[in-house]
Here is the input.
Amino acid sequence: MLFLLQFRADEKCGIIRAEVVKIQQIFDAGCNPALYQMQGKTYDFPDMTQELCPHCKADYLKKHGFYERYLITVGFEGEITIRRYCCHECRKTVSLLPSFCHPMRTYGILAIFGVLKEFYVKMSAACLAVARFLAATGVEITRQLLRHYRRRIEQNSNSLAMTVTGIYALKEPLITTTTNMRRKVRQLLSFIKCPQDDSLKIFKQTRTTYLTPQPI
Ligand SMILES: [Zn+2]
Here is the structure.
């Protein structure tokens, strides 16, 4: 419950109609949100019925219907269908999130990453970063929300950098030992060229995301 309350306090815009979900699984959607939305329940969702419940490991997951989730991202705004599984043993659920979504956020990966990049990489002031991002993409993100995203990614920057260093087998650590937080995050974001693909890789390895310090 705490997890959901935290989420609702974080997001200033948009409401996700969701129940308390303990685990979210991200998968490669292989298409853009509009195409995904168009297919609705007929989308070819990954079959998880051969996988043990990640909560209790005592039973295989069973299909457990769908729910609608609101998504705002670059080039898309609307409700999308989320496939859900459950465990008949412990009664807990697993939701399958397409890779353009960020867990527990109304805004998608490209929107979150884009506005952060505007702030850190293009070195715009916060008010300018949100204005420029809005002008370039049509996606409105408040300064307050950007400040929240900044706080989260700064908290995560060291662990994210270590993960990315590992994923790409870099010879040198991605982030140097600078104490300048803004420079640190700039180095990290500048390296990431495919935000959605890299986000999926980071999630598969650590079960964390750009903005989620703890495994989800
Ligand atoms: Zn279970």
In short: The chain has two domains: 2-98, 109-205. Residues 53, 55-56, 58-59, 87, 89-90, 92 surround zinc ion (CB under 6 Å). The longest strand covers residues 62-73. Helices lie at 2-10, 33-39, 109-120, 126-137, 143-167, 181-191, 195-206.
